[in-house]
């Protein structure tokens, strides 16, 4: 069991999330993430568009500035998405 999984189990109700930005996985402590937060994780300019990619079928969706993305906890659970520059 990975250290992050152990830490999550030691804190009831505290789930760990992962955000995949162009192949780089970042740990995230919240069940949602905003477009500006994705840019900050990625180190992108504020003018950079953010695209959500559904890993199951490679469908892409350009996110609006005020979109909030719901994340699923842990690895391999729920909808798998990643983000890339637009």
List keywords for this structure.
86 residues; five-stranded mixed β-sheet; 34% strand; disordered N terminus
Strand order of the largest sheet: 2-1-7-4-5
Q: How far is the first residue's CA from the last residue's CA?
A: 36 Å
DSSP E strands, number = 7
Share of residues in strands: 25-35%
The Rg value, from CA coordinates, equals 13 Å
- The H-and-E topology, N to C, reads as HEEEHEEEE
- Please describe the biggest sheet, giving its number of strands, its sense, and whether it closes into a barrel: 5 strands, mixed
Structural class by sheet pairing and helices:
alpha+beta
Number of helices: 2
Coarse shape:
globular
The poorly predicted ranges are 1-10
Overview of the structural elements:
- Helices cover 19% and strands 34% of the residues.
- The protein is of the alpha+beta class and 86 residues long.
- The chain has one domain.
- The strands form two sheets. The protein has a five-stranded mixed beta sheet with strand order 2-1-7-4-5, covered by helices on one side. Strands 3-6 form a two-stranded antiparallel ribbon.
- It has two helices and seven strands; from the N terminus they run H-E-E-E-H-E-E-E-E.
